[in-house]
Amino acid sequence: SIDGNIYLGKVQNVLPGMEAAFVDIGTPKNAVLYRADVVLEGDQHGDAEGELPNAGRGRSHRNNSNSSIRIEHILKNSQMTMVQVTKNPIMHKGARLTQEVSLAGRFVVLIPNQPTTYGISKRLPDDERRRLRRILDAIRPDDAGLIVRTAAEGATDDELRRDMLRLVEQWNQIKELSERAAKAKKPTLLYRE
Q1: Distance of CA 137 to the CA centre of its chain
Q2: Dihedral (CA of 128, 125, 149, 122) sign
Q3: For residue 71, how many other CB atoms are within 10 A of its CB?
Q4: Cβ(112)–Cβ(141) under 8 Å?
Q5: Which end of the chain offers a freer environment for a tag, N or C, measured as fewer CB atoms within 10 Å?
Q6: Burial of 113 (0-12, 13-18, 19+ CB in 10 A)
């Protein structure tokens, strides 16, 4: 299973009619990145209040204000791009990808480069959600979004902060690896779920 893995992939071909791109991530079949899963600078998410499927990955919560921009104007052949697998390859089909990377911790999900993504699981009681929101407001990084998971019920602010800091450190390592891999211009596994 490669679901959740993060890769530096190489765009092989952009298919305007499908609004998709095939991306080489080093697997036997190229993976597919659909336009709806491409993140542009300035994409806004709004307040994601529910527990998200796949620990925050995917597009079910995205409010993509730039959706009218066509994929061929965003991605080019041979371009290197960081992607995360949202669906394992099946039979003759390659894996499904997103550019919206997320890292799931025990209590929180970190969504790098998406500071407007912010939410707390709706499965939690209202008083617990209010308590967690106060903590989230204090610990949230400026350059990333955070989703508080259902497992955070009863967690202390110190536990939440440590979980978030561990994910930020993990993200910094992924970025560093990505920068080195980009120089080689070849698909690279950056993080294994």
Answers
A1: 21
A2: negative
A3: 18
A4: no
A5: N
A6: middle
- The closest of 21, 87, 20 to 53, measured between CA atoms, is 87
User: What confidence tens digit (pLDDT) does each residue in 6-34 have?
Assistant: 999 999 999 999 999 999 999 999 999 99
CA atoms of 11 and 39, how far apart (whole Å): 15
Within 10 Å of residue 90's Cβ, how many Cβ atoms?
Answer: 10
Q: Report the alpha-carbon distance of residue 84 to residue 5 in Å, rounded.
A: 6
Helix (H, G, I), strand (E, B) or coil at 19: coil
In order of 28, 96, 140, the CA distances from 92 in angstroms are 10, 13, 41
Sign of CA dihedral 104, 106, 108, 113: negative
pTM above 0.90, yes or no: no
Residues linked to residue 32 through DSSP beta bridges, in sequence order: 22, 96
d(CA 54, CA 115): 19
Under 8 Å CB-to-CB from 79, ≥6 apart: which residues?
10, 11
Beta strands in 40-158 (DSSP E): 80-87, 96-98, 103-104, 108-112, 118-120, 144-148
The pair of three-digit structure tokens given for residue 177, joined into one six-digit string: 């690896």
Phi, psi at residue 175, to the nearest 5°?
-60, -45
Q: Is pLDDT above 70 for 63?
A: no
Q: Are 101 and 5 in contact (CB under 8 A)?
A: no
Alpha helices in 19-155 (DSSP H): 126-139
